[in-house]
C-alpha cells in the first residue's frame, strides 16, 4: 500500500501568514455580533461600534499610542499611500522634500515619487541592507524636508534599521518620521521611535483585507480629499476584519518571546547549513541585527523563478524576487540597493506552524532542486 503524500510546507509568509486560530474565532464571533454599520444609533450599530473601539484600543495599548490615533485602512498599501500623502500635504508649508531609504517597500517609494517627484532624497544602504544612518541624518537636516521614511526592518532580507537613532535626530529638527513596521510588528518589539506608523495585520497571522495606520497626536498629517469621518478609510472599514486583526496582534505579542527563540534557531540553522550543502550561495541580510523569521539566499547560476517552481513541485512554497512585488517576479530593488545578486534568490519567512520535520525535508530537498535547475541551464559542475 502506498504511503500518503507529504503535506505542503509554506515558507513564504513575509506578507501573509496562515491565520491564527484566535483570528478565525474572533472573525466568526465579530461577524455574528458586529456586522452592522457602526455609525448608526440602534443596538446592532452600537455593538459594531463597541467592537471597532475595542480593536483600536487593543492596537493602541500594543504600540503605546492613543486609541484615537489608530486607523484601520482597506489594505496595507492604502495605509502606506495614505501616510505618505497625508504627511506631504500636511507639511507642504515646510517643504516638499521627502527623505527615504533605498530599501523602503515599493508602496512607500511609489507614493513618495508620486507626491514629490524629483524632491525625493534616497539614502543608500550597506551590503546588509541597513541604511547609512549618518547619511540619512544629514539628509533630514537639510531645509525644506517634509518628512522622512525608514522601515523598522526589511521584510525581504530581515535586516533591522537604526530607527531610534534616526528618530532622535529627526525629532530634534522637527521632522516627522514615518516607520513601516509591516515586517516587524508581531514578530519583534517595535518601540516608540516613530511619529507615523504603518503595519500589515496579515503578516502576524491576522486577516487579509485590512491595513494599519497610526498617527501621533500633533503630527500634521492631512489627507487631501472630500470630508469623511475617517479620511484614511473613507466610508469605514470592515468591523469584523479590524477586530480580528487586533485579536491576532494580541495573540502574536503574547507568543512573541517563545516564537522568537524557536524561529531564530531555525533561521540560524538554515543560514549555516544551506551554504554547507549548496555551492555558490550567498546568505543575504545582517547576521545579527535581523528579524527572527526571515532569511534570503542568492544562488549563482540559478534562475529564481525556475528554482521557485522546482521547490513548489517538491511541496515547498518559498518567495522569490522582491517581497512587495513578488507577483511580478521583478528583480528586487532591495537586493540591487545592497549590491547583492538580484536573480537566483529565494526568501524564506517562517510562521509558527513550521515544524522541525519541515525544516529537515527542506534542507534535504534544496540541494537537489538547485542542482536540477543548474543542470537544465547547463551550468552544473562549475
Automatic annotation (TrEMBL):
<dbReference type="GO" id="GO:0051536">
    <property type="term" value="F:iron-sulfur cluster binding"/>
</dbReference>
<keyword id="KW-0808">Transferase</keyword>
<dbReference type="InterPro" id="IPR015424">
    <property type="entry name" value="PyrdxlP-dep_Trfase"/>
</dbReference>
<dbReference type="GO" id="GO:0031071">
    <property type="term" value="F:cysteine desulfurase activity"/>
</dbReference>
<dbReference type="InterPro" id="IPR016454">
    <property type="entry name" value="Cysteine_dSase"/>
</dbReference>
<keyword id="KW-0411">Iron-sulfur</keyword>
<protein>
    <submittedName>
        <fullName>Cysteine desulfurase</fullName>
    </submittedName>
</protein>
<dbReference type="InterPro" id="IPR000192">
    <property type="entry name" value="Aminotrans_V_dom"/>
</dbReference>
<keyword id="KW-0663">Pyridoxal phosphate</keyword>
<keyword id="KW-0408">Iron</keyword>
<keyword id="KW-0479">Metal-binding</keyword>
<dbReference type="InterPro" id="IPR015421">
    <property type="entry name" value="PyrdxlP-dep_Trfase_major"/>
</dbReference>
<dbReference type="GO" id="GO:0046872">
    <property type="term" value="F:metal ion binding"/>
</dbReference>
<dbReference type="InterPro" id="IPR015422">
    <property type="entry name" value="PyrdxlP-dep_Trfase_small"/>
</dbReference>
<dbReference type="Pfam" id="PF00266">
    <property type="entry name" value="Aminotran_5"/>
</dbReference>
<comment type="similarity">
    <text>Belongs to the class-V pyridoxal-phosphate-dependent aminotransferase family. NifS/IscS subfamily.</text>
</comment>
<feature type="domain" description="Aminotransferase class V">
    <location>
        <begin position="9"/>
        <end position="362"/>
    </location>
</feature>
Amino acid at each position: 500500500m502506498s504511503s500518503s503524500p507529504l503535506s505542503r510546507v509554506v515558507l513564504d509568509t513575509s506578507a501573509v501568514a496562515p491565520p491564527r486560530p484566535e483570528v478565525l474565532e474572533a472573525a466568526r464571533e465579530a461577524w455574528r455580533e458586529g456586522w452592522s454599520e457602526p455609525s448608526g444609533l440602534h443596538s446592532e450599530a452600537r455593538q459594531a461600534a463597541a467592537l471597532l473601539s475595542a480593536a483600536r484600543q487593543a492596537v493602541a495599548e500594543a504600540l503605546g499610542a492613543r486609541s484615537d490615533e489608530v486607523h484601520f485602512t482597506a489594505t496595507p498599501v492604502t495605509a502606506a499611500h495614505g501616510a505618505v500623502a497625508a504627511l506631504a500635504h500636511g507639511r507642504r508649508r515646510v517643504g516638499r522634500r521627502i527623505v527615504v531609504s533605498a530599501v523602503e517597500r515599493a508602496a512607500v517609494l511609489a507614493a513618495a515619487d508620486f507626491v514629490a517627484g524629483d524632491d525625493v532624497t534616497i539614502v543608500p544602504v550597506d551590503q546588509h541592507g541597513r541604511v547609512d544612518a549618518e547619511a540619512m541624518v544629514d539628509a533630514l537636516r537639510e531645509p525644506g524636508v517634509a518628512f522622512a521614511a525608514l522601515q523598522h526592518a526589511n521584510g525581504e532580507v530581515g535586516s533591522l534599521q537604526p530607527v531610534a537613532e534616526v528618530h532622535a535626530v529627526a525629532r530634534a529638527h522637527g521632522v516627522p518620521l514615518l516607520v513601516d513596521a509591516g515586517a516587524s510588528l508581531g514578530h519583534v518589539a517595535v518601540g516608540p521611535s516613530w511619529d507615523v506608523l504603518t503595519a500589515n495585520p496579515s503578516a502576524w497571522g491576522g486577516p487579509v483585507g485590512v491595513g494599519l495606520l497610526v498617527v501621533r497626536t500633533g503630527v500634521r498629517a492631512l489627507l487631501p480629499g472630500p470630508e469623511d469621518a475617517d479620511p484614511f478609510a473613507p466610508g469605514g472599514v470592515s468591523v469584523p476584519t479590524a477586530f480580528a486583526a487586533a485579536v491576532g496582534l494580541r495573540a502574536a505579542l503574547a507568543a512573541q518571546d517563545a516564537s522568537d527563540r524557536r524561529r531564530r534557531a531555525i533561521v540560524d540553522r538554515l543560514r549555516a547549513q544551506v551554504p554547507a550543502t549548496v555551492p555558490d550561495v550567498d546568505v543575504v541580510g545582517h547576521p545579527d541585527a535581523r528579524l527572527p523569521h526571515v532569511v534570503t539566499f542568492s544562488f549563482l547560476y540559478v534562475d529564481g523563478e525556475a528554482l521557485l517552481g522546482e521547490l513548489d513541485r517538491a511541496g515547498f512554497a518559498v518567495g522569490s524576487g522582491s517581497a512587495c512585488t513578488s507577483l511580478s517576479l521583478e528583480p528586487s530593488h532591495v537586493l540591487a540597493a545592497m549590491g547583492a545578486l538580484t536573480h537566483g534568490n529565494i526568501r524564506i519567512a517562517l510562521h509558527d506552524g513550521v515544524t522541525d520535520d519541515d525544516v529537515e525535508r527542506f534542507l534535504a530537498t534544496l540541494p537537489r532542486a538547485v542542482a536540477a535547475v543548474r543542470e537544465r541551464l547547463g551550468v552544473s559542475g562549475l
